Amino acid sequence: MKRALLASTAVLLSMALIGCGNSSSGSAAPPAALTQILSDSGIDGDILVPPGTVTEGMTPAVQSVFAGIDPASGDESRAFLHFPLSGPNGIPLNAVIVSATIDIVIDNIVLQSPGDTVPILIDLVSFTPPLIPNDFDRTSLPPLASLAVLTPISSADVGGHVFIDVTSLMAQAQSLALPDFQIRILEDFSAVAPGLIEIDDTTGANRGALAPLLQVEYL
User: Fold this and answer.
1) Verdict on whether the full-model pTM lies above 0.85
2) Rounded-to-integer distance, Cα 12 and Cα 120, Å
3) C-alpha angle with apex 128: 186 to 131, nearest 5 degrees?
């Protein structure tokens, strides 16, 4: 329901922009298109360091990906999400990006202290599946662009949708003509307290409502 509402809101906004875009000659601005792309559960995964364990592909036993630092062990996980940009819901190579949002559902959060939060970074990356341990490292797999998410993840987000504006990353992916929108999610280096988030990536019947979703508005 929340995802349907988000799409409806974006469509209404596009219509409003179109209505305000008439020139003095009476011509209207081109309508904006809206698409929603679920992540590819067969490629989504995470990498845990140490020891460099790669978990890729959602299965009945693996229904989520992890990002952040475990307060108990100090081990770090970085999540990878893969959104195909071609196909029926894809984005034309000549499209101009108006906005882009990632919608993720937080299944759980592990904090050092109850009041802590987990600030995250999102890297735009480009890798050829399958994931390998070196993809964890920002030197081995350098970001094509990065985004510090302004609002950190907190206990209040558990069980709910978190919407993240990734317009700058999507615009960069489009400018590079990338066939897929691939992101690496990690804890912000400036974080004082470690924390670990679990992102829902179910393969069940409710995947359309819970799995990572990329919503893009373009011209």
Assistant:
1) yes
2) 31
3) 50
